[in-house]
Design goal:
By secondary structure, this protein is α+β, with helices and mostly antiparallel strands. Strand 4 and strand 5 form a beta hairpin. Helices cover 25% and strands 31% of the residues. The chain has one domain: Bira Bifunctional Protein, Domain 2 (BirA Bifunctional Protein, domain 2). The protein has helices at 14-24, 76-90, 147-159, 164-178, and strands spanning 4-11, 31-38, 56-63, 96-98, 102-105, 108-118, 122-129, 182-185, 190-193, 198-199, 205-207, 210-212. The strands form three sheets. Strands 1-2-3-7-6-5-4 form a seven-stranded mixed sheet, with helices on both faces. Helix 2 (76-90) packs across helix 3 and helix 2 (76-90) crosses helix 4 (164-178).
């Protein structure tokens, strides 16, 4: 996988920029863009994900047919998040994934992942990580790491083409850490506890007889 990475100083949102560039035909997969700082980033549940210089703001696109044949589309965010989590862990971090795809250090969020599928055949994945600085209610990744070295190792993992079933076996163990938490379920309009959820093979949870794929 010959993945071109563009390194830029500042952007509103790497995710929105790449989505627009793919839709217009300006960019074709495989491709990645990383910004030194981001001023209008998109986080989970409609939140902003902005940050200072030095943090990771990454978006990349791939043809879906280059991904493992057993990877469900609804599982892509977890898949890429877990590969990044493993990359960081191999560098000495104690980061873990809170369901479904938020990076945590201890009990504070340090980053997250979103994905989108365009034209039914291109996946766009965006990751944000607090590598050097975070607001008080968030965490910074617990190791010092060069962004270029981190992304080189991360994309090498993607290139290794790990099957979803092999990633999911490890993710199931990780899910136990999430069962300490509650979340506000917009469909039920109440707080639900993840200890009452059953993780499904596609990364969703079954809770109160409903399948839930994200906290958005």
């Amino acid at each position: 996988m010959g993945l071109e990475i563009d390194w830029i100083d500042e952007i509103g949102s790497t995710h929105l920029w790449l989505c627009d560039a793919v839709k217009s035909g300006e960019i074709t997969p495989p491709y990645a863009v990383s910004a030194e700082r981001q001023t209008g980033g998109i986080g989970s549940r409609g939140n902003r994900w902005d940050g200072k210089a030095g943090n990771l703001f990454l978006s990349f696109c791939l043809d879906i047919d280059t991904l493992p044949s057993d990877l469900p589309r609804q599982s892509m965010s977890i898949y890429f998040s877990y590969l990044m989590k493993e990359t960081l862990a191999e560098l000495g971090s104690e980061v873990w994934l809170k369901w479904p795809n938020d990076f945590y250090i201890a009990d504070k969020k340090a980053g997250g992942t979103i994905t989108a599928v365009l034209r039914h055949d291109i996946v766009i994945c965006s990751l944000g990580l607090n590598l050097v600085e975070a607001p008080p209610e968030y965490a910074t990744i617990d190791i010092k790491v060069d962004k270029k070295d981190l992304l080189e190792a991360f994309f090498l993992k993607i290139k290794r083409h790990f099957f979803w079933k092999d990633i999911f076996i490890k993710y199931k163990v990780e899910f136990f850490l999430s069962t300490r938490y509650q979340y506000f379920d917009t469909a039920a309009q109440k707080k639900l506890h993840l200890k009452d959820a059953v993780l499904q093979n596609d990364g969703s949870i079954l809770i109160e007889n409903r399948k839930v794929y994200s906290l958005r």
